[in-house]
């Protein structure tokens, strides 16, 4: 059924919200944005992932006359986006390079005859004049530019096709434009506004806080084991994303997890396109799949129930880290952002920057990004506070990050720093050889390793002067001095060198505060029993069996229709149904996420599932199959 046939008084945004989307009220700035765009104004919307950006253009597109044209770079996800809208009764279609000519023609004619509410377009389609003339012949209600940070040249997701979007305004000056992104340092924000010619638009900047995400950054010991421990103890059976820097580590980590009984799939640019597409589809469609990926994966993935995002390597910037972790918990339920980070990460990243492409200015920019990331890792303050400060926003201690939950002690590390820096200074006078952190620490600990004796380092005055700290603690000192720029690394082997500020410490003119390393966590002994599915968060124990039954019903329906499970209903909706056990369609209709279309389509089946009169079998699933879709 199409929205137009619901008999809606479409001038009322709240009614569209209730009846089509099944939500009670707007969140944050949604209503303001929607009113502004519906009235024909341009807007630039900065809202964190999960903040509810889609409604900001979908509702004005439904309320205004004509078709809303959405520019999105996420070709692989357009089908899902369109499916999700159709499930709500919204008439949506897309045009991109993956389609057959006849499919395109169908969508084009639906656009021209006004039988679409929303049309998704890949940006490269706008380079083709036939697209321009198609748009000329139809009636456009608005342009939505999704993932607008792709227009920012120095941002981390720049796409040249986005530059052409500045022409939209020239060609269709009366059509309102709304640009949306979840990435927004001041610099990116300004660049989007100027490149898209949105300087006169109204800017809506939401709080970037994601209160349901718990941020944790731990020292890296045995990363794969640490990850496994996290998954087993806190996220058994949950969907999540694990980010690794290299293709090799993606493969190895995925294998390791599979070997340990976790449903994990790899994703990186080295896999062929069909494998990537298949793995992405499984991640989206099935429950509880863990995707192990390089950062090539994830933009636009709007799976709402990603319960954790784990980083096994240090992200290159806070902006990237924030985007990647933001993919957790779009549904607002508790989620974890976990990062394991070690000295080797710093050395490796510095090496990548020094040996990478680009001019000095570019390298300096990368180094600044890395420094901000290191500062976040080494902070003794609230992580969330530090993250938000990076985006120019303020926060009080959040109570939901590792530093708030177990505040790290800080200690006066001035003497330790002096010992370490003077060792580095002595080694820097050696002409024959350069030395990394390992050698420096061995010397401090007084270890007569072959390499120490070979170079006569056991005769240095600093030999054995640092036995008060353990090796792991010394590595922590090195890391923190690097983060504070009191020490630097150079060259291919991670040679430690002094910086301009080191001398202040060596001369006793500067105090060095360090964060105490947590006691080394014993590696988890592999459990022999199969991992148990954890009880879903925030669900009363008595409602768990019903929730699982509803999920089984949903899986069958989603499979039948070939769409991701969350397109049918979100977990949060099933959770509310399982808890409240509505007994009539009217009661069911009040549940968040149950709009009119879904109530009509699935309401009775849900009630039957609740009363136990509808066992899930393939035949029930076939019977409830939605074969009629007026938009196809
Ligand atoms: P974004 O694009 O900003 O990352 P989405 O538009 O995907 O966020 O919205 C995130 C989640 O919040 C989705 O599951 C969406 O259905 C839900 N949502 C958005 N607005 C509301 C609202 N007003 N009430 C309830 N749920 C909402
Ligand atoms: Zn905090």
Describe this structure in words.
The protein is of the alpha/beta class and 632 residues long. The chain has 4 domains: 3-205, Rossmann fold; 213-341 and 379-405, Rossmann fold (3-Layer(aba) Sandwich), CATH 3.40.50; 410-515, Winged helix-like DNA-binding domain superfamily/Winged helix DNA-binding domain (Arc Repressor Mutant, subunit A); 541-628, Orthogonal Bundle (DNA polymerase, domain 1). It has a 7-stranded parallel sheet with strand order 3-4-2-5-6-1-7, with helices on both faces. It has a 6-stranded parallel sheet with strand order 8-13-12-9-11-10, sandwiched between helices. α2 (30-38) runs parallel beside α3, α13 (343-355) runs antiparallel to α14 (360-378) and α14 packs across α20 (471-483). The longest helix has 19 residues, at 360-378. The protein starts with 12 loop residues before the first helix and ends in a 9-residue tail after the last helix. The structure holds adenosine-5'-diphosphate and zinc ion.
Strands of the biggest beta sheet: in what spatial order?
3-4-2-5-6-1-7
Q: What's the CATH first level of the largest domain?
A: Alpha Beta
Low-confidence stretches: 1-10, 520-536, 617-632
Proportion of beta-strand residues: 5-15%
The H-level CATH homologous superfamily of the largest domain, spelled out, is P-loop containing nucleotide triphosphate hydrolases
Question: What's the alpha carbon Rg, rounded to whole Å?
Answer: 27 Å
Shape: globular
CATH architecture level-2 label of the largest domain:
3-Layer(aba) Sandwich
Averaged pLDDT: 87
